[in-house]
Specification:
Oligomer: heterotrimer
Strand order of the largest sheet of chain C: 10-9-8-7-11-12-15
Strand content of chain A: 15-25%
Chains: A alpha/beta, B alpha/beta, C alpha/beta
Number of domains of chain A: 2
Helix content of chain C: 10-25%
Number of strands of chain C: 15
Helix content of chain A: 25-40%
CATH class of the largest domain in chain C: Alpha Beta
Structural class of chain C: alpha/beta
Structural class of chain A: alpha/beta
Radius of gyration of chain A: 22 Å
CATH architecture of the largest domain in chain C: 3-Layer(aba) Sandwich
């Protein structure tokens, strides 16, 4: 493991930023944290996690797909894709790193999404083990170990030091280029892991269990609880937009005045036009839209992905839903009725 | 309070006076209550909650609820009663189908910083219930609020500073539409931003100025009708102080047309939908713009 | 950079046929004059006009047609209205093929086939019907029941009369919803007609049309002794990507764009009733 004193962390960031863009969680001045491009003066936040998820790095909210020029009956298709620049994201928590795997399962399976792949290949993820999980955290429910996040490299902050170890070739190439000292004395790391594990076990949602619905698709779908759960849902997209695993998108054309830009943007199954066709929509009421979101994460996605859930327990929807409805409440209700 | 409210709600249900009660349902913690419709006493006993985390303004739900069969009882905090009145004035709520119970409010706590009051409560405009069929607890007075302080600060900025301020705030917008969907003044059946034929129905900014336009257009559309309930800022996942846009309009209306509070009464015509000879001339825009 | 399915190829419209007051059939070839791509019967393609929109359409022509691709399109929304207004020579963006296909080389092989279509529902079936006609030796007896609101709403009427009806070993049964001057054929709804015709439940059936017609036809077939596993249909949902990633066309855990649009009716029963 590499080790450096926390007082040198800015020098460490500066060294990475010399070669490629570096993003770290920094305080947003509003009591939360947000991924910010590192520059002299940008400090690593102490927040448990960023308000927006890390999916933006690989699946940004809007992204240009292709350009067109139209001239009478003639159309010109302009492939404006470019290789993305190398970048590093530091400080990604275990839940968000796991969300990349879920996004990969969608975007890197045939036919591969070249836009996503481009960013994924050029990005290096340095994860950061959790030491102060919050009451809204429930990653353990999905078998995620907050003390051992995946990524290209993983870091620990223990005592007055930053410990960091490479997990992939990409991570090892990056770390070995930085000239940091290596150490065998990792006792502080293990002490911190043990301490964090204790905290994780004592979280209010520690006992939350994910039920296996993969053989009970219709039971879950037809459960009477959806009416109550979705009753006051506003149909906004905040849960989907803060969610690290929500990956649905819309494709739209934008007339720039000089041509047509075809871009994609995050979409939300909570929105009324999500499944709207010329002759109507199969999901007429908010109940159906709401149900789709949770069925996707808890039933459909696991059915198609060997039982892996489409939720990583980051707790963002617990904090951000305007009516405080969320996947934990859904899991509890659904678990009870389909016993 | 909570106990009295539950008893009263159960009574209203059992007497048949109402067939549903709109209130707040307890969550996983003390601070994540969900607006909910209750139909039986046992459910009320077990799950109804009224504490300092019941910020959700229930009046907008009445647009749909009052259109259903039977009478619905609803609990309204003082500021919620302004929205309630305004919606009645706009013929969005069927008053006869609603039994409104005013409930005392001592200010709601900020979910993100639970020691603090929400901003809208720290600068509360009124503890008075302006509409109710019955009251639980005390109704207070209209308060001398400092709610325009930040608007004044913005007014005193140079236009460049102000532009920077709003660009900074609005650039975080993710177009989740939470502000619009929660807003009691946003009750269009089909919003222009949802209409694919409008040319402005993008879900995300196609160019960097678009999210600004969304909020500016929305602020204009609710101007004169916004009661300053503050729900837009409460629900914003990016903590954008959207209420400041609305407060600027309210402050301007007060200055140009005389003191006016939307939702204070049901019968009054708002200054923006009424003509009087003393109204400000359109040229006021230039005069104020130059100052 | 690797090939990207979301970036369309260009095609050009070489012929436009008016089928009914609201259905036109468009013939499309690539800019090189070749067919834009190879497909199997039942598959779809994304057609788009930049600035207007993009949508999924069934490929109406049979894969055995090696010269061009055809799309029978009903005017019902923004893009389709635009397509109906365009002229021959218009370039058009096209990508695909998307979706699974009718099991023409497996389940259908050696079987008697019963095709049942209503209205524009003939569009996806025309591809498979012509494929089976061209590989006639692979299939048993073929029956086709096709109905529409009126005589004028029968899509591909000329081809049906001139070619399908002329085939000796194919029976074509046409019907329209209401009596009409100049029509001496059958009058009545498709589901009832299917029951009247009393088909033997030994064949494999393919049903396509409006949801309500599919529902009642399926019920009729079951009355005649068909098992749901003998009946295939195609589904329609809103689509954006066409490759199971944009997340909107699912019925339960199946994406219509990728796992469909062709489903066997007994398989549909295992999915949530949300279509």
């Amino acid at each position: 493991m590499y080790k450096l004193n926390l007082s040198e962390i800015n020098a460490f960031f500066a060294k990475i930023a010399q070669n490629e863009k570096l993003y770290i969680p920094a305080d947003n001045g509003k009591g939360g944290a947000r991924y910010t491009e590192w520059a002299e003066g940008v400090e690593l936040s102490n927040a448990c996690n960023t308000e927006r998820s890390a999916k933006d790095f690989f699946f940004p909210q809007t992204e240009n797909l292709v350009d067109f020029k139209v001239n009478g009956k003639k159309i010109e298709v302009i492939d404006s894709r470019e290789e993305c620049e190398d970048f590093v994201v530091f400080g990604v928590r275990a839940c968000d790193v796991k969300s990349f795997e879920i996004l990969d399962s969608v975007y890197l399976t045939d036919p591969i999404d070249s836009y996503y792949k481009n960013r994924r290949e050029h990005g290096t993820v340095i994860s950061l083990a959790c030491s102060a999980p919050e009451e809204t955290c429930f990653c353990r429910t999905f078998g995620i170990d907050a003390t051992k996040p995946a990524g290209d490299a993983r870091a620990y902050i223990a005592g007055d030091s930053l410990y960091i170890e490479a997990l992939t070739e990409k991570g090892s190439a990056l770390l070995s280029s930085l000239g940091i000292a290596e150490t065998d004395d990792t006792a502080a790391v293990y002490a911190q892991i043990a301490e964090t594990e204790k905290k994780l076990a004592e979280l209010p949602l520690a006992a939350l269990e994910a039920k296996d619905f993969t053989k009970k698709q219709l039971d879950a779908f037809n459960a009477p609880v959806w009416a109550g759960l979705s009753q006051t849902c506003l149909g906004c997209g905040s849960c989907t937009f803060v969610c690290p695993t929500c990956q649905c998108y819309d494709i739209k054309d934008f007339d720039t005045g000089h041509g047509i830009k075809r871009f994609r943007c995050w979409d939300s199954c909570m929105y009324s036009d999500f499944t709207m066709m010329a002759h109507g929509t199969p999901r007429n009421t908010q109940l159906e839209k709401f149900r789709q979101r949770f069925m996707h994460k808890l039933v459909y996605y696991p059915m198609n992905n060997d039982g892996v859930y489409g939720c990583v327990g980051c707790g963002r929807c617990l904090k951000k839903c305007p009516i405080s409805m969320n996947i934990v409440k859904v899991m509890k209700s659904l678990g009870e009725v389909t016993e | 309070m909570q106990k009295v409210m539950i008893e009263r709600a159960a009574e209203l249900l059992s007497s048949g006076k109402v067939n549903r009660v709109l209130g707040w349902r307890a969550g996983l913690f003390a601070h994540d209550n969900t607006p909910s419709v209750f139909t039986d006493a046992a459910d009320l006993q077990a799950n109804f909650v009224y504490n300092e985390f019941c910020g959700a303004n229930l009046s907008k739900y009445l647009v749909k609820e009052s259109d259903k069969e039977g009478t619905v009882a609803v609990f309204l905090k003082p500021c919620d009663t302004y929205s309630f009145n305004q919606l009645i004035a706009e013929h969005k709520i069927k008053r006869d189908n609603v039994y409104a119970i005013g409930v005392q409010c001592n200010g709601m706590k900020d979910v993100n910083d639970r020691e603090k009051l929400e901003e809208r409560c720290a600068s509360c405009k009124s503890r008075k219930h302006v509409a109710y069929d019955e009251l639980i607890g005390e109704s207070g007075e209209i308060l001398d609020s400092n709610r325009f302080d930040m608007v004044e600060k913005l007014e005193n900025m140079t236009s460049e500073e102000r532009f920077e301020f709003w660009r900074g705030e609005l650039s975080r917008c993710v177009r989740c539409n939470a502000c619009r969907n929660v807003c009691p003044a946003c009750t269009c059946e089909k919003c222009i931003f949802d209409n694919p034929d409008s040319g402005s129905a993008n879900k995300a900014p196609a160019d960097p100025f678009e999210e600004n336009l969304f909020h500016i257009i929305r602020a204009f559309h609710v101007a004169g009708r916004c009661t300053d309930c503050g729900e837009c800022s409460r629900v914003c996942p990016e903590n954008i102080p959207l209420h400041l846009l609305n407060r600027k309009f309210i402050k301007d209306i007060n200055e140009l047309y005389g003191e006016y509070q939307a939702g204070e009464t049901v019968n009054e015509r708002g200054p923006l939908v009424n003509y009087t000879q003393g109204d400000a001339e359109p040229s006021v825009v230039y005069e104020r713009g130059n100052s | 950079m690797i090939e990207e399915t979301l970036i369309p190829k260009l095609g050009v419209v070489t012929d436009i046929r008016i089928d009914t007051p609201d259905v036109k059939t468009f013939r499309v070839v690539g800019l090189d004059g070749e067919k834009p791509f190879i497909h199997v019967p039942g598959q779809c393609a994304m057609l788009s006009i930049p600035g207007v929109g993009e949508a999924m359409f069934s490929i109406t022509s049979s894969p055995t047609n090696e010269e061009f691709m055809e799309f029978s399109i009903k005017k019902c929304g923004c893009l389709t209205e635009w397509l109906h207004k365009m002229d021959v020579g218009q370039e058009i963006c096209i990508r695909g093929p998307y979706g699974n296909a009718f099991p023409v080389e497996s389940d259908f092989k050696g079987r008697d086939l019963l095709f049942i279509a209503g209205g524009i529902g003939l569009a996806p079936l025309r591809s498979v019907i012509n494929y089976c006609r061209d590989k006639r030796e692979n299939y048993g007896h073929i029956d086709i029941v096709y109905g529409s609101r009126s005589k004028d709403d029968l899509v591909d009427y000329r081809e049906i009369i001139d070619e399908w009806c002329a085939d000796k070993d194919i029976n074509v049964y046409l019907t329209i919803d209401r009596e009409q001057e100049g029509w001496d054929g059958h009058v009545g709804f498709v589901p009832n007609y299917v029951k009247e015709l009393d088909f033997k439940p030994t064949s494999t059936a393919v049903v396509c049309g409006p949801p309500i017609m599919i529902k009642f036809t399926l019920a009729g077939l079951i009355e005649l002794g068909f098992d749901k596993s003998q009946v295939f249909t195609t589904m329609e949902m809103r689509m954006k990507c066409g490759v199971g990633k944009c997340g909107r066309c699912n019925i339960g855990n199946k994406y219509v764009c990728k796992d469909g649009p062709v489903f066997r009716c007994d398989q549909l029963d295992e999915l949530p009733n949300e279509y």
